[in-house]
Amino acid sequence: MADVTPLPKKKQVVDLQKELRPISLTPVVSKVSEDLSVLNLHTSFSELLRSDILCGHGGAVGVGLVLDSAGTFPVLLDRSWSDRKSGALIKKEELVLFILFVVIAAFGLLGNLLVCLNITKNRPVRRPINWLFLNLAISDITILVFLAVMYIIVRVVSHPRGPTCDALCKFLTAGNIAWVGVVSSTCSLVCIALERFHMVFKPTRHKSLFRVVSAKRGIALSWVFGVLINIPLFVVERFDAKILFCSEAWPSSIASRYYTVTWLAVVIIIPGILMFFLYWRIIRFVAQ
């Protein structure tokens, strides 16, 4: 006689249905949507770096070079040590990277100052190429000084508050003038590449094209161009009391993206391609 399995009781069937009920994802989705709402359309890249989503510091943001709590994501922004709560410990990564910044800035300033002294004292500045090298060193000094203010000095000293804080952000602590130096440095590198190219391929026209007066005019134009292309940064930079440091207040995310792409194309990509082509031609000519 075949075994007959007894049917489960009504209560057992109800319990089984509860166990097999699909898990609701509504709380998870609502939490993700809540986190993503932080990234509104007016959030710039610098503000995104300062957000809790990337930094993972629970709102303790400001300026510096640190790692997040997991020690895997490099972040250039963290609260100044003097703005932290009393008794808060300084991370080992923070101290190491801070010392690294100081060493790089010190050696960079020393090296470029020696270049300036060497050109002005030991070698008479009579050739156009020397003027270009001098401007390149001055541009690098400008970059190092204002980045040192942004990532070293403000790291150990709180950002000043008050009516002048916005002006300090625009012209000192946010590093905008460092980007002017980057543009001038790039222009100097392009002019040096053009000077080398004409010396190799067009030696008869070299002296007429590259004179001291022409070099001085080119240097002046490089700084003017650097100021003009960075005007939007001076306009949108302001002090944010929430993060106790400077942030960019763009009218829209589209404007920020267009400006970033244009800046990279004009200052980095196009000059890089041009210099690569010029030096490639020179190397091929010398190799033959």
UniProtKB/TrEMBL annotation:
InterPro entries: GPCR_Rhodpsn (IPR000276), GPCR_Rhodpsn_7TM (IPR017452). Signal peptide: none annotated. It is found in: Membrane. The chain crosses the membrane at residues 95-119, 131-157, 177-197, 218-236, 256-280. The keyword Membrane applies. Belongs to the G-protein coupled receptor 1 family. This is G-protein coupled receptors family 1 profile domain-containing protein. It comes from Nematostella vectensis (Starlet sea anemone).
